[in-house]
Amino acid sequence: MKNAGAIKRTLKYTSKYKKSLIGAFIFAIISVCLTLLGPVLTGDAIDYIIGKGQVDFSSVGKILIGLALTTAGVTVFQWLMSLCINRVSYLTVRDMRTDAYKKIGNVPLSYIDSTPHGDIISRIVNDIDSVGEGLLQGVTQFFSGVITILGTIGFMIAIDIKIAIVVVLVTPLSLIVAAGISRFSAKMFSKQQRMQGDISSFVEEMIGNQKVVTAFSMEDENQAEFEKLNEKLYYCGKDAQFASSLANPSTRFVNGIVYAAVGVIGSLSAIAGGLSVGQISCFLTYANQYTKPFNEVTGVITQLQTAIAGAARFFELIDSPDKTPDRENAKELTNIKGSVEFENVCFSYSPEKPLIQNFNLNVVPGSRVAIVGPTGCGKTTLINLLMRFYDVKSGEIRIDNTPVTELKTQSIRQSFGMVLQDSWLFEGTIRENIAYGKEDATEDEIIAAAKAAYAHSFIMALPKGYDTVISEDGSNLSQGQNQLLCIARVMLSNPPMLILDEATSSIDTLTEQRVQLAFDRLMKGKTSFIVAHRLSTIKEADTILVMKDGNVIEQGRHEELLKLGGFYSTLYNSQFAKTK
Questions:
Q1: In the prediction, which pLDDT does 530 show?
Q2: Are 247 and 175 in contact (CB under 8 A)?
Q3: What is the C-alpha separation between 106 and 528, in angstroms, rounded?
Q4: Which of 166, 314, 371, 483 sits in a 20 to 30 Å window from 440, CA-based?
């Protein structure tokens, strides 16, 4: 049922290109008709060869000219059919891949976090490619096959209806054999596609973290793990290929029986005077033509089964839940003052592991809120909830006294400038990366933002300055330089509210002090949330939230919390304790 649904939904994609499909069908009809005309002409030519010295060369010559024109026509119309089918296949693959990529932008962040990235990439690239290859093979065989079967039956009935009935009655054996093998091999190909997704995930993860792998000398262990996965893929592929390879010889055996039956019955009919030698030759050719589509379909069953399995994985991605949509009457967040309230907020990534319970917080406009605490206490989770990367399980978050569920999500995110500990840059020029959040920025604005982030000097030291192309993930720059460019990106967008999650973690101490001054200017009058492990960077915060196990256990200014002598004081002193 799952495979049948995948086939049906894939056909909906192809149905958009009805003109090309109709064209392919028409060209297939013409091509097959001309192909089937060949045996008739050949049979007529044989009948004009009566015996030695009794050949009607004039009639045979005319037939040979007709046969040559027929062959040329078959070639032209098969080429036209292939053009139409190729167009349908490539456009279908384009549409499916576009929908898959669009879907990635609509799934909740929890889906991206919980699904191996390599598996997602495999669905978008490998699985959809297999659908395209299956369409090229399957549609071609379907069009030409169906028409060939119907055409040969018609021609055989016209020559001798009794022999035609024998051929039609024996043929279902071939279909029964092929169907049984197909059901068995379908499971194997589905397993093979899943294993391809697993191995893609592993390779993507290891290549992305090759420096860590090398630093810990884990090359041999990772190689062993890869070989283990590759071995599983080998056995899955071997089983799938073995299952599918049974189909073609099995159907050819049945078709051989059909051919032999036609030869025997046709010979007996010729002896009785019912058929001529030319007609027997024509009938034998038609018997081959009739069984050929069954052989061809079973010959490409590997591609077809792979395509069906790939389509099923593609539709699993398409059918995954979308992120929570905005309400119909959702409002734009405008004229932002910057007040933020958390009221009885509860949230956990998984039900069995509670994280934030009954969290309450009231942030006045323009204040700087620092969030500190041990790893896993919920600091970044608060940011995820505030940006609506995740939605709360219960309770409510309000911005300027309006629940975030009543606001357009895009307007919420556009209201915050966000600098994360893990800097992200895409392959493009430095200018394009800085202007990522403000594509209409002028050159002067880009340079001013870079200067504010103390990135201008190192940019100008590069051979092409702002036109320097950054490689994927910024690997041709240092971590600190990458982070400065991300800071410049936020400086340029100049949002009404800020989120800084370990924003200066990769920057040297001197540059950090300068960037902190720039942040001070940027945060002036703006509500800002600062997640920090280095407590020296948050001394000037208006409010420091000390979190532990998803709850705020202490709250106040730096001096107040030190005097309190609680958890914050312990954290702070542990960072600055002197060794005696």
A1: 86
A2: no
A3: 28
A4: 483
d(C-alpha 116, C-alpha 500), whole Å: 27
Q: With contact defined as beta carbons under 8 Å apart, do 149 and 175 qualify?
A: no
Residues recorded for the chain? 580
Extended beta strands in 373-422, E state? 394-399, 402-403, 416-419
Sole residue written with tokens 């405008």: 334
CA 148 → CA 30, 34, 36, 83, distances in Å? 11, 11, 8, 19
The answer to whether the beta carbons of residues 320 and 137 sit under 8 Å apart is no
Q: Please name every residue paired with 260 in a beta bridge, in sequence order, or none if there are none.
A: none
Helices (H) and strands (E) in the chain, counts: 22, 12
Are 331 and 404 in contact by the 8 Å Cβ rule? The answer is: no
Closest CA relative to residue 143, chosen from 35, 39, 246, 221: 35
Three-class HEC string of 280-325: HHHHHHHHHHHHHHHHHHHHCHHHHHHHHHHHHHHHHHHCCCCCCC
Check residue 536 and give its pLDDT: 66
Q: Return the H-helix or E-strand segment holding 341.
A: strand 340-347
Query: pLDDT value at position 99?
Result: 92
Q: Which amino acid is at 363?
A: V
- Placement of tokens 């576009």 in the chain: 98
Per-residue model confidence (pLDDT) at position 506:
64
Query: CA dist 424 to 379, 415, 418, 431, 470, Å?
Result: 20, 20, 11, 15, 11
DSSP type of residue 391: -
Determine how β-strand 402-403 pairs with β-strand 394-399. antiparallel
Q: Strand 402-403 relative to strand 497-501: parallel, antiparallel, unpaired?
A: unpaired
- For 558, the enclosing helix (H) or strand (E) is helix 558-564
Rounded to 5°, angle at Cα 37 from 260 and 169: 35
Tokens of 394: 């219960």
pLDDT score recorded for residue 134: 80
pLDDT at residue 473, as a whole number: 63
Residue with tokens 């505030």: 386
The overall average pLDDT reported for the chain is 80
The CA distance from 103 to 82, in Å, is 31
Q: Which domains does the chain have, with CATH numbers?
A: 2-318 (1.20.1560.10)
Below-70 pLDDT ranges, the chain: 1-3, 50-55, 139, 143, 171-175, 177-186, 208, 211, 215-216, 244, 247-248, 251, 274, 277, 291, 294-302, 472-475, 503-507, 534, 536-537, 575-580
What's the Cα-to-Cα distance from 408 to each of 108, 332, 403, 569, rounded to whole Å?
15, 6, 11, 40
Inter-residue contact 487 to 453 (CB < 8 Å): yes
The pLDDT value recorded for residue 576 is 61
